[in-house]
Design goal:
The protein contains 34 helices and 25 strands. It is α+β, with helices and mostly antiparallel strands and 944 residues long.
Length: 944
């Protein structure tokens, strides 16, 4: 019996012209997307076939853009790890990128850069490991060449040197993402409490230091023999390719890989929790956090969809019950998040509530328990169920907007549901749900005695004893390498690119309303989705000297109430549309952004207009947002990377500059701001003649004009527009090293910063290309040396911020505590080298192509197009500057890049901010010969 397509989504797709009968691949329209209707059911057009060696391939032709996404899933994750080898699957993911027999170590990512690749990475979850990138369509053969070598010949290059290097990298990743992040250890403790010893879900995916370090070369080879074989992997190709050609190339590159034995089946029983398990933990955090977690049904099993909807009802957004109760009404919580984390062996239903300062977690827990009991006893309303469905359906559509996420969705369905075409059945689960079913699943699964409760309190972060990092071996021993597949010398030569289509970026047109509002429109027919952003000259730079944080406070207030709707009504309206809306102020501009389905465009744009033109600034809402922002200001102290950035801003701009303070403001300014100040700022800066509405998606110009004029045409600024005072120049402190103490920190967060040029600089393109080589790309000089060669970091990057009136340069990342001094010294060497001599021809070609050929992949969603044109308007550039980028990048020479480095990259001006363990870091940094000062969390001189 066929499953019906969800009616709302089917109607939307039909209106957008996306639904059509299945056509043979060769008869597809030149611009056809991947969505179709087959036998009355919504489907992703695909074809699956299996090679003789068991390798699964799924083709998803999608002609919307000249791009192809390559998405390889190896069906192995922590669920397949042996006892005492936590983190193995994730470590193996890193090793796969290290090199292969026909792609030398370090060359893989360089090939991706040189081809114009985007979205290149890998990830591991409990059930699988995936490897993905997106290339221009003319690089189909090169992508298959790379993927085949990753799967078939990576083990040939794994030796003790490669293993030791990636062990260092992964351990740095653990320090950065788990140990040096607020509540990071709480997440790990939650899984320890949920699952017993021996269960594959017990540990964090990243594993423990001890287990990562004890992995031996023999273990790596055994894992490869068992799991990294063609009969345990699936490749999805999604994008602009000829299916017949793709099949022939897949056979060419993957057909000779030797299959392995069938991997052992994972047979695991998850013991039922019959008595509540409670933990109290301390962490270096500012605010307490409550976690409640339950075992729930595995993915796609009965109860999974019901609990997904229950999560939306309880805490799926600002319209949810717990957000309304704990954040808005009682103001006990800083944030609420609820989710059904669906997995193959056992899912986890998780409720996470961060408390406001001084609030008892016991009180929050009682209120959460009462709300769960209410949902278990009384079904959700029809409106709540409709909101959950709308949000889920929009999220699915948005995953199909980008070929990279479309490919991953198909691979997900293939492994987890056993059917790459499971889309209709997936959505139908929610369409068939009744309120009573949601209530019954809540009552069955979310019982108090079946859960884990964790109270995380501010205090010391208790880390296990340090596992020493052995010295990096300098060379591999003889006989360490072996092969699963025989040598094929023809693979040593990378395949050439096919003829490329002319490189074209999404163009935009603009028109101006009589009131001065600029409207920028970039049409993108296809999926029925629309994104919009209202951009205003109302950022942090406009703050009066005595009112830091004012611009951000005003932006935060906009969704919290209008002249006709309360914050709750606004949130419920958005949820009913399945749409998202955000409001925030950056350094030089404020943005109100909307994203949703085309059917919601009218109401979404109307909401943007309503919030911008008639905010309420009600006293009760001001007090609530004030408390939220004061708590968020405190939370900066617990996040080393943010703290380094805040201290760096103060050092770059100098005391009294509008951009020197934290964008949130100060405790004093936040307490002093009132409705009169907020409204005065809004009246002065939220004006149509100083704003642009940027819209991209499935709207024609006629449709957009018909929407915009009635909604925004009556908008008038109040009184005469005040003159825009020019931003004062940066007044940086003298170049020196600033240390902020975080005792016991496992890493040092670095921000190496200086003033930089503005967007008006004529050498913006050479500057960006030069920075790509220095620290902008994964393959950059700084990241390569500190991560791949020395094992000091999980990742470190540099970049220029080119604003309308301000400019900055920064190098940001976290490094191992004991390598802080050597890491900074190495960064200095790379900066100096960038200024000393021009790039060689190979490096120049690679980084130029990485900027030039990747451009279509950087504008592949409505949101990306809107962000690009909104940012373009904010810094004062003409519309044509985006479509002119290809010609600009193509013309850059090594001499241009060298000149940009010498003009805009001065090591003598760089200020180093290091947030870490003072006792261990200070002696290292003093050896570098620069003046070192101690600063507090606000960037002020410390008396310690």
């Amino acid at each position: 019996m066929s499953t019906p397509t969800p009616r709302r989504l089917l109607a939307l797709l039909a209106l957008a012209g996306l639904l059509h009968a299945t056509l043979p691949a060769q008869a597809e329209p030149a611009t056809a997307g991947a969505v179709s209707v087959e036998a009355g059911r919504l489907a992703i057009r695909h074809e699956k076939f299996v090679l003789a060696n068991g390798f699964e391939v799924i083709l998803v032709p999608d002609r919307r853009l000249p791009l192809v996404a390559f998405n390889l899933w190896v069906h192995a994750g922590p669920r397949n790890e042996a006892q005492g080898q936590t983190g193995f699957a994730h470590l193996f993911e890193h090793l796969v990128f290290a090199g292969s027999r026909h792609v030398p170590r370090g060359a893989f990512d360089k090939h991706i850069d040189a081809a114009g690749g985007t979205d290149s990475n890998g990830s591991t979850n409990f059930d699988r490991t995936n490897y993905f990138f997106t290339l221009p369509a003319n690089q189909l053969e090169k992508g298959l060449w790379l993927k085949a070598d990753m799967l078939g010949w990576m083990i040939d290059e794994v030796d003790s040197v490669a293993l030791a290097n990636q062990q260092d990298v992964v351990r740095n990743e653990r320090r950065q993402t788990t140990e040096n992040q607020p509540y990071g250890l709480v997440e790990e403790a939650k899984y320890h409490a949920l699952y017993p010893e021996g269960h594959p879900y017990r540990a964090a995916v990243i594993g423990s230091h001890a287990d990562i370090q004890r992995i031996q070369l023999k273990d790596v080879k055994d894992f490869a023999r068992t799991y990294y074989r063609p009969n345990n992997a699936t490749l999805v190709l999604a994008g602009d390719f000829d299916p017949a050609q793709a099949k022939a190339l897949v056979q060419k590159y993957f057909g000779t890989l030797k299959p392995g034995p069938k991997p052992p089946e994972v047979r695991v029983t998850t013991p039922e929790i019959t008595q509540e398990r409670r933990l109290v933990m301390t962490d270096r955090v500012e605010l307490p956090r409550l976690n409640l977690a339950w075992h729930t049904p595995p993915l796609y099993q009965p109860g999974d969809a019901e609990l997904d909807v229950a999560a939306h009802v309880l805490g799926g957004g600002k319209a949810s019950r717990l957000y309304g109760l704990l954040v808005r009404e009682k103001q006990l919580a800083q944030s609420v998040a609820v989710m059904q984390g669906s997995q193959s062996l056992s899912s986890v239903f998780d409720i996470e509530v961060v408390a406001r300062p001084g609030v008892s977690l016991d009180e929050i827990e009682r209120l959460v328990d009462a709300e769960i009991a209410r949902l278990a006893a009384t079904p959700p309303t029809a409106a709540e169920l409709a909101q959950a469905r709308a949000v889920i359906e929009t999220q699915v559509l948005q995953r199909m907007e980008k070929v990279a996420t479309l490919a991953d969705l198909v691979n997900h369905y293939n492994q987890m549901a056993g059917d790459p075409g499971f889309l209709a059945q997936d959505l139908a689960r929610y369409d068939a749900l009744t309120p009573a079913a949601v209530s019954a699943a809540t009552a069955q699964w979310l019982q108090r005695e079946r859960r884990v409760v964790i109270h995380a309190q501010p205090g010391d972060k208790l880390l296990p004893p340090e596992v020493p990092t052995p010295p990096m071996p300098t060379r591999a021993a003889k006989g360490e390498r072996e092969s699963l597949n025989g040598p094929e010398p023809w693979r040593l030569k990378p395949p050439a690119a096919a003829s490329a289509k002319p490189l074209a970026l999404p163009a935009a047109q603009s028109f101006t309303l009589p009131n001065g509002l600029t409207v920028i429109h970039s049409p993108k027919p296809g999926l029925p989705l629309v994104s919009a952003s209202l951009v205003l000259r109302a950022g942090q730079a406009a703050n009066p000297a005595d009112k830091p944080g004012l611009a951000g406070f005003v932006a935060a207030m906009l969704p919290e109430g209008s002249a006709t709707r309360s914050a709750q009504q606004i949130a419920e309206g958005l949820a009913g549309l399945g749409a998202t809306l955000s409001a925030q102020a950056g350094a030089e501009e404020a943005r109100l952004a909307f994203s949703g389905r085309k059917a919601a465009a009218r109401e979404g744009l109307a909401l943007l207009a309503e919030l911008a033109l008639s905010p309420a600034f009600a006293d009760a809402d001001i007090e609530r947002i004030r408390a939220q922002r004061l708590a968020a200001l405190a939370q900066v102290r617990e996040q080393p990377d943010l703290l380094a950035e805040v201290v760096g801003q103060r050092a770059v701009y100098g005391e009294g500059h509008p951009l020197a303070e934290n964008a949130l403001g100060t405790v004093a300014s936040l307490r002093a701001l009132d409705a009169a100040a907020l409204r005065a700022f809004w009246q002065a800066h939220y004006r149509p003649e100083r704003a642009a509405l940027v819209v991209a998606g499935d709207l024609s110009e006629a449709e957009l004009r018909a929407l915009v004029q009635p909604l925004f045409g009556a908008w008038q600024g109040r009184g005469e527009a005040p003159a825009l005072a020019p931003l004062p120049p940066a007044r940086p402190t003298a170049a020196r090293t600033l240390v902020v103490d975080q005792p016991g920190a496992s890493q040092t967060a670095l921000a190496i910063v200086s003033p930089g040029p503005t967007a008006a600089t004529p050498d913006a393109a050479p500057l960006k290309l030069m920075n790509a080589a220095l620290g902008g790309l994964f393959t950059s000089r700084i990241n390569h040396q500190l991560r791949e060669v020395k094992g000091y970091t999980y990742g470190i990057y540099s970049g220029y911020t080119l604003g309308r009136e301000r400019g900055e340069f920064g190098i940001h990342g976290s490094v191992r505590t004991d390598a802080t001094g050597p890491a900074v010294a190495e960064i200095w060497r790379q900066v100096t080298g960038m200024r000393t001599r021009p790039m060689g021809a190979a490096e120049l070609t690679r980084v130029r192509n990485a900027q030039l050929l990747s451009l279509p992949g950087l504008f592949d969603t409505n949101g990306a197009v809107v962000a690009g044109y909104a940012g373009n308007w904010a810094i004062g550039r003409p519309l044509s500057s985006i479509t002119a980028l290809p010609a600009q990048y193509a013309a850059i020479t090594a001499a241009d890049a060298l000149k940009a480095a010498r003009q805009h990259l001065d090591p003598s001006q760089l200020i180093v901010v290091a947030v870490g363990d003072r006792a261990k870091v200070l002696p290292q940094l003093r050896k570098l010969g620069r003046q070192v000062e101690l600063r507090d969390a606000e960037g002020q001189l410390s008396r310690q």
